[in-house]
């Protein structure tokens, strides 16, 4: 049995348990085995089904390699997934990619009625190399193109983590010259080189997560986070409800024609750009400083386009 087949079965199991749990259902062993067998057949995989032994082995591997806690509830006589928020975004990305790849036909070609968005590389081809550098505490250097100055620099970095933000991936590390934590977009990195030198980590992953917790994206200043209240019309509000822009997003109230949201984060350029993307229905309730700043930006834009 191939590793690819095992991976497919495990993702099918995760997806099915997720879907059933979302409906308040605890799927039984029989239901899960039948569903996986059916899906393997529909995907034209050379499988005769899934045995109980294989199922239990898959559960062990899911817990080990995906860090997803799947348990059996004796009262409900079915399986459920406990909270796995630490790896949730990675797992969801893997499941999304799996669903897309599963749509390939027998020739390995995407059907013409599947129309994906055209995107440039986000630098994930450097993942394995950078992960090895982080794990082994190898000092790394690379070429880095800065969008604001359009200059290529060659930083030497103590690599600490890889972080996703706004569908882009970043290398988080400390510069060897200032020892400050900085973020480098993988889409702007090239010519990665292991220097052969080692370093010792002096900052924890928890501290790095904390640094960006109150940021909208990767721009992190010394500003204090603030409570922000905004509103949108129903159309934009429903888009924001379905795809929250920040983990602190909360619905304050809903009126006939408006939806009010609150956030708790630092007011920085990336967040203001996000607000401006739906400026046609946006109203800033508080703080006044944000309302004033966005008003100035819009007035400057009006002047440029008059």
Q: What brief labels describe this structure?
A:
306 residues, alpha+beta, Arc Repressor Mutant, subunit A, SH3 type barrels, Phenol Hydroxylase P2 Protein, 3 domains, six-stranded antiparallel sheet, four-stranded antiparallel sheet, 9 helices, 12 strands, 38% helix, globular
Task: Sum this structure up briefly.
InterPro entries: CBASS_pafABC_assoc_protein, WCX_dom, WYL_dom. By secondary structure, the chain is of the alpha+beta class.
Any chance you could write out the topology, listing elements then pairs?
Blueprint: H1 3-22, H2 29-42, H3 52-66, E1 70-73, E2 78-81, H4 88-101, H5 127-136, E3 138-146, E4 151-153, E5 156-165, E6 168-175, E7 181-185, E8 189-198, H6 205-213, E9 226-233, H7 234-242, E10 250-254, E11 258-265, H8 269-276, E12 283-286, H9 288-304
Antiparallel strand pairs: 1-2, 3-4, 3-5, 3-8, 5-6, 6-7, 9-11, 9-12, 10-11
Helix pairs in contact: 1-2, 1-3
